[in-house]
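Workshop exercise sheet. Pairs work together: one partner reads the sequence aloud, the other fills in the structure field after running the prediction. Swap roles for the next sheet.
Pair: D.N. / O.F.
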Amino acid sequence: MADASFFDMPTDASIKKHRIVSKNFGGWSNIVLQTALKKEGKLKYVDFFSGPGMYKDGTRSTPLLILDHVIATPALRDVVELVFNDQKPEFIAELQTHVEETRGVELLRHKPRFRTFRMGAEAVALVRKNNVPAFFFADPWGYRGVSIDLIEAAIAHWGCDFMFFFNYNRINMNLGSEAMSPAIDEFFRPEPARELRETVGLLRPREREEAVLNAMRDAVKQLGARVEKFTYLSSTGARTTHHLMYVSKHQRGMALFKEISAKESTSFQDDVPSLEHNPAGKNGQGLLFSPLGQLEMDLQTTFAGKTLTAEQIYHEHHNGKPYILRNYRQALLNLKEAGVVEIHASLEARVGKEGVPTNALVTFKAS
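Structure field:
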């Protein structure tokens, strides 16, 4: 749970977070809106740890940015219900004041709702009752209150996605603490948490982080969903502090998060994004191999002898990797020039400067 000093003024990392969340909400609502209008007639945005909504310097944070987007989008004003929660009553009271003072809030059909639930089993039970497409966001102070049970409840209804801050630094510190075992068990569920403790004990830091992330990916996979991440590094760039995670059952949701968060990357190599916020800057140790070249080799191995559209290749391959759509289009163009693939594009969508059209059929030579 954040203290008030956290909201004095935003850091660069916080500003990136606000942009990523608000842009993803906008993209998500565009994807699900038409189907929701035919079925439930309603969408939700639910913020589990909303905070006061504004920094002391006047910068608007995620809840108010989402509100601004809904007000500014006529198609959303009649269908989106905003639900803001924070267990600190003073934060919710301040947020409510800011919401009520926002110009245009009276245009909303559904009046924003404000709650002060402590996140836990009771909150999970309430989330399970959700019956409309919803975009859930959780940015806890630490990691308590977020759990696999909460994620499962949140994405149960069609069209629901869940974005959250995964505080790797604190989880890593607490994995070996018996006093924190209940909290870790709640986050991962008891048996996966036990297996993770056994796995990470003798691992080096980088291997340990990957083991923790794999445990999260496996837990989400058991829910029938996938997860992507945008990583926040320490001030020196030497270690991970947080991951901003996105969970969805739908390939368009996964691609949306990847494309939006890629634009916030500190660095690119071969036009491949780092998918990291590194306060130490862009100057880092270059990779030994070209990441685009690695993608080309991986595509040859993965899809040997197969024919798919460029878009199918992208959706089937990119999850858990740093590549974005334009990387795949360029890689496929390079493979075509090397004689490794054949590309069949319509006259309306020929291969051009931007690479291979997404609807082009790509045939890989058998290995």
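Discussion prompt: The mean pLDDT is 90. What would you look at next?
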